[in-house]
Amino acid sequence: MTSVILVDDVEDKDDTSSFDILGEYLSIKDITVYRSDPESIVESYKKNKPDVVLVTVLTQRGINAIQSLRKHDLDAKIISCSENEHEPVKYVDHHIDSPYEIDSIIEKIKELKK
After folding, report:
1. CA–CA separation, 3 vs 15, rounded Å?
2. pTM given for the model
3. DSSP structure class, residue 30
4. Nearest to residue 33, comparing CAs of 16, 51, 15, 17?
5. Cβ neighbours around 107 below 10 Å, total
6. pLDDT in tens, 73-98
7. Taking CA atoms, which of 12, 77, 79, 87 is between 20 and 30 Å from 68?
8. Could you read off the pLDDT of 40-60 as tens digits, one per residue?
């Protein structure tokens, strides 16, 4: 079974985010979903050993999470998601600009898992 960690870099969310909806949809599609805050990504990655990590890059917290994970594991499969391209795109395996097309994210997860 495929597994992913979703890392949302936005603090103090009052509403359901598109990443929350993505997590629910991935679960429906039989993908195991773990969640982590950016500061705990390395520990969560070690514990859960996911196939892919999806990180929102809307703040510096997302950039830091990607850099920390890449330092820990050069082979980690990372997808960044943001409203526009940011610096860490060079540290990830794939970048997706919003609005996100969920089916294309699932396709990319399966591709990176191979």
Report:
1. 25
2. 0.89
3. T
4. 51
5. 11
6. 999 999 998 876 555 567 899 988 87
7. 12
8. 999 999 999 999 999 988 888
